[in-house]
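Technical note accompanying the year-one report. For the benefit of new consortium partners, we illustrate the data format agreed upon in the data management plan: each record pairs a sequence with a structure-token string. No post-processing was applied to the example shown here.
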Amino acid sequence: MLSPSRVRTTAVWAAVIGVVLIGSAAGLGAWAFARGNTPFAIDAWWNALLVDAAIPLAGPVSYAMNFLGGGWFGVFVVPLGGAAALLALRRPWAAVFFLTAEATSAALVQVLKHLFGRARPTEILIISDYGSYPSGHVANAATLAVCAVVIFPRIAVALVGAAWILLMAFSRTYLHAHWLSDTVGGALVGAGAALVVAAAMAVPLARGREVVGSRRSAH
């Protein structure tokens, strides 16, 4: 059982790190905006590299990730389905946390997209919404990954979450829907949003973990 002071300390650190990540995403977006439509050198290099890349299964996997991470499936099915699963596990506060983090992440993404209005690569292979920076798909993946670690704090969960973020980032650049720096910004926003919400809900989340632990001990 975590002491109240330990919970508060953890919440403060989560809030600080979350704000720093979101601030870093805003700073990177402002830097890109100041450059006009000129991508960073690493953006241009990575995009050009993938134009001529012939990677087995990369295309089908990237299109699948495009579906899973955005649109009606990523915006509605993933958050609502995840919350329903957590409710089925009798984790109501975890469900509220997950939905709030997803909504916060999505809102921040839209604010930054409309604030900076960055143009997407001209080679884009899919139809997408306004604004290249930051990547909403990667932000969603990062929010999902961080929420999973907060709710189920296991190394295996963290590793799977990291892999999911990297795969989503690669798929977005493989489809030329985003510059590489867009995916970095998305990861910063998504992770930061989840940490800030986790900090705000630290007490009920800690109590929920204690209830789960007591249930396991009873069995």
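Partners are asked to follow this layout when depositing records. The chain has a mean pLDDT of 93.
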